């Protein structure tokens, strides 16, 4: 079985469209433990579409940092004002 994995199944309950995403690298310890799960994040998005701050709402602590780091590299559609977006990043082993 191939254990090289990336996060998949990005979901968003946001009013703003996600323009681009970056899938986080699967944390080595989580992969070794065969840990899978979903990290829920609340992202403050600036008017120009970049992540200003990321707050963890839920998820396994071994997966949180990788998800947060990746979301900081995402972009959303531009808007007139800052917004709060709820996103989920799921980690699955292949």
Would you write up a description of this structure?
- With 94 residues, the protein is an alpha+beta fold.
- The chain has a single domain (7-91), classed as 2-Layer Sandwich (TolA/TonB C-terminal domain), CATH 3.30.2420.10.
- It contains 2 helices and 6 strands; from the N terminus they run E-E-H-E-E-H-E-E.
- It has helices at residues 28-32, 61-71; strands at 7-12, 18-20, 37-45, 51-58, 75-76, 83-91.
- The radius of gyration is 13 Å and the shape is elongated.
Provide a quick synopsis of the model.
The chain is α+β, with helices and mostly antiparallel strands and 94 residues long. Helix content is 17%, strand content 39%. The protein has two helices and six strands; from the N terminus they run ββαββαββ.
Task: Summarize the topology.
Layout: E1 7-12, E2 18-20, H1 28-32, E3 37-45, E4 51-58, H2 61-71, E5 75-76, E6 83-91
Summary tags:
elongated; alpha+beta; disordered N terminus; 2 helices
């Amino acid at each position: 079985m191939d254990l090289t994995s990336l996060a998949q199944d990005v979901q968003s309950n946001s009013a703003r469209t996600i323009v681009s995403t970056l899938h986080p690298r699967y944390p080595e310890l989580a992969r070794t433990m065969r840990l899978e799960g979903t990290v829920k994040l609340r992202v403050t998005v600036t008017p120009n579409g970049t992540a200003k701050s990321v707050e963890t709402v839920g998820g396994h602590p071994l997966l949180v940092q990788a998800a947060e780091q990746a979301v900081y590299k995402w972009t959303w559609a531009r808007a007139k004002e800052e917004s709060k977006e709820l996103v989920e990043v799921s980690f699955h082993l292949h």
